[in-house]
Each structure stands twice: as structure tokens, then as C-alpha cells.
Amino acid sequence: MPRQIPYIIANEGCERFSFYGMRNILTPFLLSTLLLFVPMADRASEAKHVFHTFVIGVYFFPLLGGWLADRWFGKYNTVFWFSLIYVAGHACLAIFEDNLKGFYFGLFLIAFGSGGIKPLVAAFVGDQFDQTNKNRAKLVYDAFYWIINFGSFFASLLMPVFLRDYGPAVAFGIPGILMAVATLVFWLGKRKYIHVPPAAPNPNSFSSVARTALMSKQPGQSRPGLMMAGVGALGAVASLCMTPQWGFVIAACLALVLVLAFGGIGVSMQLDRARGLHSEEAVEGVRSVLRILIVFAMVTPFHSLFDQKASTWIVQANAMNSPLLNIFGWEFTLLPAQMQAVNPILVMLLIPFNNLALYPLMRFIGITPTPLRRMGTGIAMAGISWIVIGMIQLQMDAGDKVSILWQLLPYALLTLGEVLVSATGLEFAYSQAPAPMKGIILSFWYLAITVGNLWVLIVNAGVKNDAVSAYIATSGMGVIAFQMFFFAAFALLVAAVFALYAIRYKMVDNYRNEGPASFCYPETEKDKP
């Protein structure tokens, strides 16, 4: 193993503990402390809004971090300086525990810092290998993956206890200390790392080819693709004009979605016009990316459901009974936020189970577990998990006392969906995109997570509308239960559309045949990569 790798792995373990340490107690802290000025009826909704706005930032800022690293500062410098911003954000959370603006500023700094380094650390690991030692890369990435889950598990288990017993200053301060340690460890390995310099601008990049396709004129022909992109731009302006009514985050994110959606359609309509001005590989690469974006768009509902386990599901768990448990003579009760520790444990169990048992069994009975089949099934599993959580909520709304342990079943179903979707998504995308376009894929994957959380904000705001509230009242369900079944239906509907698209999708094989080692790391909720 290259001697610099332990520094990166130790850095990742401390950073993941710091991130999940604060993230997994954010909703309980908002509900119990920071948002006490909000009326009780609106407090859960406001806590969800704050949480998912934060997650949107975490997965939006990788665009900035990746661009700065690739074009200007390199991976090491970008990771180091964004890590210092990250530490400052943790400090703000610990210091401004009772100051709304100070605390929110800390959340912004953490989203900015963690998002900035998110796409870089796993890629930085890949930079440390070449043809002479690439055979050891899998071992290192396995360790990298394990340390992510290790940090997530113990953060989910311990930090709710610190919040309960020692208060928010200590509970948010400990993750800050861990992030400071992570930054120090990363700095200590500086002279041992292999530093790959930023690349020169690529004339055949995705954005260059797309711009050429939209702007190119042909004699006697109009530019329908440019007009389509213009419609998206006008829609984006209209969305931004709704900022006073919708809020900046919803308006800005929806504007981005409109620009990407209509711009992508426009590029596909005129893509052949880029031939001759760009290489054939580049043009076909853009076509491949556009096809992949359709898949990513249909994965956004999964992220809507998955990320709410740290918001909506905690809100539900707060109203559930936590029985006294006894394990080897140790008696304890589970805190609502501790239920999230189930996820990393199940991930570590399900991935080897799927690879060693489930997938071979499927092949044995004649069903090939293709990436698209796995992803479609994963989206459906997420929808089913929300049917189960909704049924639990109906029992609670009827006045029944329900144990928090009933959440284990939907957690298991949702985690199975995570393994099928997230651990497969980038594997699929990297296999379909030509080598020059593989970098842009990771950026779009993070944007899919951002858009998934945008749907949560929109639904959360929608149920406050008088007409929507009146409709929910006629359904005979409470607001929370109605939202749960709505998201379940959303995911299951998209899973059906996904299955139809998968039948028509023609797979290609763009894995590397030769040349320098190139590594990717599958993304899940715990930043895989």
C-alpha cells in the first residue's frame, strides 16, 4: 500500500464522523431547541425545510469544488482550504447554539466546505496509484468504503447521546474537533502525496460541445434546439421572480432544473451540428451523457425518500415509544436519531449478501441483475418502505402506542433500495460514458441528489397551501401520513416509468481497455464516493 494512503483514510474517517455527527442530530436539535419560537404545529415542517435546504447545499457545492480543483488549484489545495471552511462551520454551530443567524451561517459554511471537498477525496485516492501498483487500489477503496460506514455508524449511535446528556455546544463541538483532526492529518501527509496538476481547458468538454450544438447555424435551417433552451431560460427567470413567494432556495433550484432540462433537450435536437467542429468521440460522448441524465432524473425521487430518514422519520420517531432494551445485561432505550445507525450496518451486510447470494441466485433462475433492473427495483423498494412507514403513521394517528422498533422494517427496505440504486448508479453511468465525459457524470449525480431534496421542499411548502390542506382533510389522513403515501406513490410511479425506459435503453460498454488507471467510487448517502 502506498505510504500516503493511511493519511487519506484517517482523514476520511474523521471527516465522515464529523459530518454525520452533526447531520444526524440536526433535526432533533432544531425541534427541541433552536426552533422553539416556531408554533408547535409548524415546527416539524420548518425543521424539515432547514434540513433539506442544508442537504441541497451539500450536494450543490461539489460543482464549485470540482471546477476549482480541475482548473486552478489541484485536488490537495482545494481539499485543504475547503476543510478549513468546514471547521469554521462546525465552530459556528457550537458557539451559536442559541443564535438563529449564527447557527444558519455555520450550516452554510459546512455545506460549502463539505460540498467543496466531496468530489475530490476519492479521486485524490485514485491519483496515488499508477500502473505499477493499481492492483492494490481495490483493497484501498474497500478500506475507504469501510471507514465511511464506520464513521457513520458511530456518529449515528453516539452523538444523539451527547446532545441529550451534555447539550448542543458539546454535541456540535465534538464533530468540529474531529474535522480539525481530519484536516491536520490530511496536511501531515502533504509531502508524501502524488499531486496531479490541474488540467488545461478541454476544447471537447461537455459544455463546449453543448454550446457549439446550440449556437451553430446551418443554411436554410432554424435553431429549434436554441429556442428550446431559450424556453428553459425564460422559465428560470420566471422561477427566480417567484423568490418572494417560494423562497430563494426553491426558486433558484427550480430555475437550475429548468435550464438543465430544456437545455439538454435543445442540445439533443441540434447535437449533429457539432460534428466536424468537435471530435466524433466528443459528440457521441455528449449524446451518452444526455441519455444518462434521463436515468439520473428518474432517480431523483429515490433521493427525496432516502434523505427524509434524517428528517421526516425522526419526526415520527419522536412520537413513538422506545422500549427498554437489554443486551448482555446492558439496559438502554433508543433515541429517535439513533435509529439511523441501522443504515450503515445494513449497508455493510447487504452489499456482500447481494454480491455473494442474491445476484448469483437471480442468474441461476434466469434473471440477469442488470444495472438498470437493480436501480428500478431499488426505487420501488424505497416506495414500499414509505408505504410501511405511512401505515405506521396511520396507527399512530389513530391513537395507538407504537414502538420505535417498528421502524426497523422500513429502514431495512429503504437501505436495500439504497444499495440497489446508489451503489449501482455510478457503475452504470461510468460504463455508459466515454472516458472524456466521465468527470461530468459525478457532477450530475450530485445534482440529482440536490433535485431530490428540492422535491421535498416543494411538497413541504405545498401542504401549507389552503387548497391542498383542504384536500388532505377530505382524505381522512393527517398531513404527515398523506405526505408519506404521496412520496411512496411518487417513487412507485417513477419506478414503473423507469422500467419502461430500461427496456428500450441500449447498453454500451465504455470501460477502459488500456491506459492509466482510472478509479471511481460508488455514491450512496454516505458519500460513496
Architecture overview:
With 529 residues, the chain is mainly alpha-helical. The chain has two domains: 1-199, Growth Hormone, Chain: A; 302-522, MFS general substrate transporter like domains (Growth Hormone, Chain: A, Up-down Bundle), CATH 1.20.1250. It has 19 helices and two strands. A two-stranded antiparallel ribbon has the order 1-2. Strand 1 (325-327) and strand 2 (330-332) form a beta hairpin. Helix 3 (62-95) packs across helix 7 (168-188) and helix 12 (280-307) runs antiparallel to helix 16 (408-432). Mean pLDDT is 88; it is low at 514-529.
Give structural attributes.
mainly alpha, Growth Hormone, Chain: A, 2 domains, disordered C terminus
* Biggest sheet statistics: 2 strands, antiparallel
Provide the CATH superfamily of the largest domain. Answer: MFS general substrate transporter like domains
In N-to-C order, the SSE pattern is HHHHHHHHHHHHHEEHHHHHH
**How are the strands of the biggest sheet laid out side by side?**
1-2
The global form is globular
- Architecture of the largest domain, CATH level 2? Up-down Bundle
Q: Unreliable segments (pLDDT under 50, ≥5 consecutive)?
A: 514-529
CATH class of the largest domain reads Mainly Alpha
